[in-house]
Design brief:
The chain has about 190 residues and is mainly β. It is built from one helix and 14 strands. Helix content is about 10%, strand content about 55%.
Length: about 190
């Protein structure tokens, strides 16, 4: 009987050791996705281009940066200034104003005024595609947000927090919008 108790105790200790050693710090890593209205949508691709160079509302030289984050089913390209899609999927579209034509790390707040440091629009859509006109299942518009951009090697990290979001009917969506993306960006020309 004593041998059975020792054996069972040994099995329990080994099981606990295996269970604890299989937990990894990576388990807490954020996932590339956006969450809105209680649903999460994966993100895989990142695209960037500088849309325009002009003076902001204060007369300072400013560059309008546009970033699109999409799922694996949606690929983008620019053709003569028009955005074209291949496939249909989820998308995050955001624009922000910087004083450089290079992406810069920092924290930016939502404000539709065309001034350096502002996120001027942030929309998300599901089942999005664009050939001659935009088509989507659901569209959400941010009315308030904080965008944090950081960099790790060749990858950019985009985090959107502190959001207020409206659906396409103008109704506020509970829970706001959360976006996390960590990856390289393809430059659209």
């Amino acid at each position: 009987m004593k041998n059975q108790i020792k054996f069972l105790s040994l099995i329990a200790c080994l099981s606990a050791a295996v269970a604890l050693s299989s937990c990894d710090d990576d388990d807490d890593e954020p996932i590339n996705q956006f969450t809105v209205d209680g649903e999460s949508y994966p993100l895989q691709n990142g695209y960037h281009y500088v849309a325009e160079e002009e003076a902001d509302e204060n007369g300072e030289e400013a560059y309008s940066h546009v970033v699109y984050l999409t799922d694996a089913d949606l690929e983008l390209e620019l053709d003569g200034g028009s955005l074209l899609t291949d496939g249909e999927g989820s998308i995050v579209a955001l624009s922000f104003v910087l004083d450089s034509d290079e992406l810069e790390e920092g924290e930016y707040d939502f404000d539709t005024d065309y001034e350096i440091g502002n996120v001027t629009y942030l929309d998300v859509a599901t089942e999005y595609s664009y050939t001659n006109a935009a088509s989507y299942d659901e569209l959400y518009r941010c009315t308030d947000a904080t965008l944090t951009i950081s960099k790790s090697g060749d990858s950019f990290i985009f985090e959107v927090t502190n959001t207020s979001v409206e659906d396409e009917d103008g109704d506020e969506v509970d829970g706001g919008l959360n976006v996390y993306f960590n990856g390289e960006l393809e430059e659209l020309d």
